[in-house]
């Protein structure tokens, strides 16, 4: 927190590899909705900053299957060869560190959620933790509309003015889980 001048650091989680685990932390500035800096460690003592995720990293990582090894410098070779790399005679590779970045991004997009009211948007546009938030009532906690994706809103921008009329701009500034359609088997 001191070295990178973060206002706050959250422990994101752990991704277990064959030879070791990656411990992931997120560094936050004053705006909680701003892109977060992510760090990883193999021993919880020495931390390395991860680069921001790109769509190319995510697309490449989706082609890889199997467990992580626990070695950030390990290079995976993947089967889909683009024309430029084929002409150069080199096999396309992706480092495990890039796969780690992409995997964290995919997990955040899929399941990074917050309860309604836990964060508020200030009139200047920054997002802060709501110090008055004491949790959801039992009735509210049972509703999907009481939870939001903690990522850049997509569906909210598509809503009409009439649909937005009942929303509180200080708390309803993210996409609700209310209209999510589960993916996978049985959906």
UniProtKB/TrEMBL annotation:
Location of this chain's protein in the cell: Cell projection, Kinocilium; Cytoplasm, Cytoskeleton, Flagellum axoneme
Keyword terms: Cell projection, Cilium, Cilium biogenesis/degradation, Cytoplasm, Cytoskeleton, Flagellum
GO cellular component: axoneme; kinocilium
InterPro entries: RSP9 (IPR055316)
Key word Cytoplasm present: yes
UniProt main location, coarse: other
Domain of life: Eukaryota
GO terms classed as biological process: axoneme assembly; cilium movement involved in cell motility; motile cilium assembly
Family: Belongs to the flagellar radial spoke RSP9 family.
The name this protein goes by in its record: Radial spoke head protein 9 homolog
Organism, as annotated: Balaeniceps rex (Shoebill)
Classification lineage: Eukaryota, Metazoa, Chordata, Craniata, Vertebrata
Gene, per the UniProt record: Rsph9
